[in-house]
Amino acid sequence: MRDGTVRLEPLDSSHLEGLAELGRDPDVQRFTYVPTPWPEGFERTWLGRYEHANGTRAGFAVLDEASGEFLGLAALVRVDLEGRQAEAGYIVAPAARGRGVAVRALRLLTAWAIDQLGMERVELRIDVDNVPSVKVADRAGFVREGVRRKAYWRHGRWVDGIMFGLVPDDLDD
Questions:
Q1: Which domains does the chain have, with CATH numbers?
Q2: Model's pTM, two decimal places?
């Protein structure tokens, strides 16, 4: 999957160094479920969750189209093939932030989920304090559906989350 600027390719062992870099980033640790502190070698466990998902997840490296540089991760972290729904997530490497990488990757991932997997709903669950991620969701065309109070228990505290959704009809607007 590509858009002329970035491309998505299935995660594999060539992306381990990039995954480790993402996992050690303080913002990633704050807003996601990666372990804190980052255990040495956990990138292999993280990769394995996508390599052995049997249709319940799908993970992609986000790469610069021209150079092949690892820019981040775009994933369906939960896939319900029967229910035709998925939850998406994205993480951009610190050096690539602020360049529209996440928006482009999320659009590619969502189009793939709808066109190739037949998803009728793709959702995002974003920590209310993760302002950059909220902006990505808005720019990628997701509809803000509401705030789920005490949505996640993370790092010893309850976190409120914003629910975003996108259905195929949203793409026709």
A1: 6-172 (3.40.630.30)
A2: 0.95
